[in-house]
From TrEMBL:
Gene Ontology cellular component annotations, sorted alphabetically: plasma membrane
Keyword Acyltransferase: no
Name under which the protein is recorded: Cytosine permease
GO MF term set: transmembrane transporter activity
Family statement drawn from the similarity comment of this UniProt entry: Belongs to the purine-cytosine permease (2.A.39) family.
Annotated membrane topology: Multi-pass membrane protein
Top-level division of the source organism's lineage: Bacteria
Alphabetized Gene3D superfamilies for the sequence: Hydantoin permease (1.10.4160.10)
Subcellular location: Membrane
UniProt keyword annotations, A-Z: Membrane, Transmembrane, Transmembrane helix, Transport
Membrane-crossing segments per the record: 31-55, 61-82, 102-125, 137-160, 167-185, 197-217, 238-263, 283-305, 326-345, 351-376, 397-414, 434-450
Family matches, as Pfam families: Transp_cyt_pur (PF02133)
Chief place of localization: membrane
Length: 468
C-alpha cells in the first residue's frame, strides 16, 4: 500500500496538471454519491416548487416534465464526467485540445465567472440560512461563516469533497425521504392532486429547465473523475454520474413540487417546506445549510482551477503548488465576501439570472466538447501537447472549434429568454427558454463537419507532401 504522506495527502497537491497513473484511486460509485448529494439542496427544491407556482402544472404532469428534463440533460453531464479517467486533467484544461491553447481562454473565463457567481450567491444563501436557524447571529458574521467553511473544504480538495458527499448521500437522501413520508403521512389539501393542470408552455419550460440545470454542471464534471483509474473505462463513470445527477435533482425538484402543493397556494417555497414537514422542518433546514456549504466548495474549487488554467496559458513551464491554490482561494474568498456583504435584497435572483444567461455560452462549448471527444478524437488526446507553450498538435487556436462556437451562440440569441436578454422569438413557447435546443441542433453537426473536413485536408496534404 502507498504511504499516506505520499499518495494520499490531506490537502490535494495537484492543480491543473496531469494526474499520473500511479496516483489514481477511487471507484466509479464515488461519482454517484458526489452528484447525488450535491443536488439535494435548497436551490433545486425552490426551483421544483416553481413547477406548480409559476408553470401551473399539476403533480402528475409536473413529475413527468421534471423527470424527462433531467434524464435528457443528464446525458451531457455524464458524458463529460466519463472523460476524466481517460484524460487525467481538469475539464477546462482539456478544452485546449479542442479550441487550441489560447482559443480555450474565453471558455475558461466564462467558466470562472459562473463558478464565482454561484459561490457568491451560495454564501449569501448560507448566511441567510444561518440567520434563519440562529437569529442572534448577525448577517455579516453568518456570511463569513458560510464562506470560510466552503473555502476550507475547497482548499483541502478532491478527496475531502468526495468523502463529504459520500456521507451526505446517506444523510441528505434519508432526510429527504423522511420529508416525503412526513408530508404524505399527514392530511393533504383537497386540491393536492388537482391544483394546476397541463399546459404545453409550462410543461416545455419545466423540461427545458431540467436540461439546462444538468448542462450547467458540465464544465467541471471531469474535475471530480480525473483521479479515477484510467482503465475504468467510459461506461461505469457514465452510469454512476448519470444516476447520481439525475436521481438527486429529480428527488429535490419533486420534493419542492410536493411541498408547494401540500401548502396553501402562493406560499413561498422554503416556507412551504417548513410548513409541510412540521417538526422535521428545522432538521431539514440545518442539513440544507450544511449541504449549501459543501456544494459551494465545488464552486470555489472550480473557480481556482479555472483561474490557474488561465494564468498557466501564458506560463507553460509553471506548475502551481498547493500554496498557490491556497492563496488564490483566499483572494477569491475575500473578494466574494466583500460583494456578498454589500449585496442587495434581490442579489441572488439577479445573479442567478446572470448565470442562466451565461448558459448561452456553455451549450455550444458542451456540444463541441462531446463531439470532439467521442466522435472526432475518440478519447485519444496528446496530453503533452495540451501543456506545451505553442499548443503542440492542437496549436494556439483551432478556428474550426472557434467558428462553430460563436455560431452556436449567435443562433441561440433570437430564442433566448433570460433576465438580461429576451430574443425576438423567445416566446414561441411562452415561458420556455428553448435556445439550448437550437444551440445543440446547430453546433453539433456544424463542428463535426468542420472538424472532419479539416482532418481530411490534413491527410491529403500529408499524402501530397505539403507537410511533415
Amino acid at each position: 500500500m502507498p504511504q499516506m504522506s505520499r499518495q494520499d495527502p490531506l490537502i490535494e497537491h495537484h492543480t491543473v496538471d496531469y494526474v499520473p497513473l500511479a496516483e489514481r484511486h477511487g471507484k466509479a460509485r464515488d461519482l454517484f454519491t458526489l452528484w447525488f448529494s450535491t443536488n439535494i439542496a435548497p436551490l433545486p427544491i425552490v426551483t421544483g416548487a416553481m413547477v406548480a407556482q409559476v408553470f401551473h402544472l399539476n403533480l402528475l404532469w409536473g413529475l413527468l416534465a421534471i423527470a424527462l428534463g433531467h434524464l435528457l440533460g443528464g446525458i451531457v453531464i455524464a458524458l463529460a464526467s466519463a472523460q476524466g479517467p481517460r484524460m487525467g486533467i481538469p475539464q477546462m484544461v482539456q478544452s485546449r485540445g479542442q479550441f487550441g491553447r489560447y482559443g480555450a481562454l474565453l471558455i475558461v473565463f466564462f467558466a470562472a465567472l459562473i463558478y464565482i457567481g454561484f459561490f457568491i450567491s451560495n454564501i449569501v444563501l448560507a448566511g441567510k440560512s444561518i440567520v434563519g436557524i440562529v437569529p442572534s447571529v448577525p448577517v455579516p458574521a453568518s456570511i463569513l461563516i458560510g464562506a470560510l467553511s466552503a473555502t476550507a473544504i475547497g482548499v483541502i480538495g478532491y478527496r475531502f469533497i468526495h468523502t463529504l458527499n459520500r456521507i451526505g448521500t446517506w444523510v441528505m437522501g434519508s432526510a429527504l425521504l423522511a420529508g416525503f413520508v412526513y408530508i404524505f403521512a399527514h392530511d393533504l389539501p383537497a386540491d393536492f392532486l388537482t391544483r394546476g393542470g397541463f399546459n404545453a408552455a409550462g410543461w416545455l419550460a419545466t423540461v427545458s429547465l431540467g436540461v439546462i440545470w444538468q448542462i450547467s454542471f458540465s464544465p467541471y464534471t471531469s474535475d471530480y473523475s480525473r483521479y479515477l483509474p484510467a482503465d475504468i473505462g467510459i461506461t461505469r463513470p457514465f452510469i454512476a454520474t448519470y444516476l447520481g445527477a439525475t436521481l438527486g435533482t429529480i428527488l429535490s425538484f419533486a420534493f419542492g413540487l410536493v411541498a408547494a402543493l401540500a401548502t396553501p397556494e402562493g406560499t413561498e417555497a422554503m416556507v412551504a417546506v417548513k410548513q409541510a414537514t412540521g417538526a422535521l422542518g428545522p432538521i431539514l433546514m440545518v442539513l440544507f445549510l450544511l449541504n449549501i456549504i459543501s456544494h459551494n466548495a465545488l464552486n470555489l474549487y472550480g473557480a481556482v482551477l479555472s483561474i490557474i488554467t488561465s494564468i498557466q496559458t501564458f506560463a507553460s513551464r509553471w506548475t502551481p503548488s498547493i500554496k498557490v491554490r491556497v492563496v488564490l482561494s483566499g483572494v477569491i474568498l475575500a473578494g466574494c465576501c466583500l460583494v456578498a456583504l454589500g449585496a442587495s435584497a434581490d442579489f441572488i435572483a439577479q445573479f442567478i439570472g446572470l448565470i442562466l444567461a451565461l448558459l448561452l455560452v456553455l451549450v455550444p462549448w458542451a456540444s463541441i466538447n462531446l463531439i470532439d471527444f467521442y466522435l472526432i478524437k475518440r478519447g485519444v488526446y496528446d496530453i503533452a501537447s495540451i501543456f506545451q507553450a505553442d499548443g503542440g498538435v492542437y496549436g494556439r487556436f483551432n478556428l474550426h472549434a472557434i467558428v462553430a462556437y460563436f455560431i452556436g451562440i449567435i443562433v441561440q440569441l433570437p430564442f433566448a429568454n433570460t433576465s438580461l436578454y429576451v430574443g425576438p422569438w423567445a416566446n414561441l413557447v411562452e415561458g420556455a427558454d428553448l435556445s439550448w435546443l437550437v444551440g445543440l441542433a446547430v453546433t453539433c453537426p456544424l463542428y463535426y463537419c468542420l472538424a472532419t473536413r479539416g482532418q481530411a485536408q490534413k491527410v491529403r496534404a500529408v499524402k501530397l507532401g505539403y507537410t511533415d
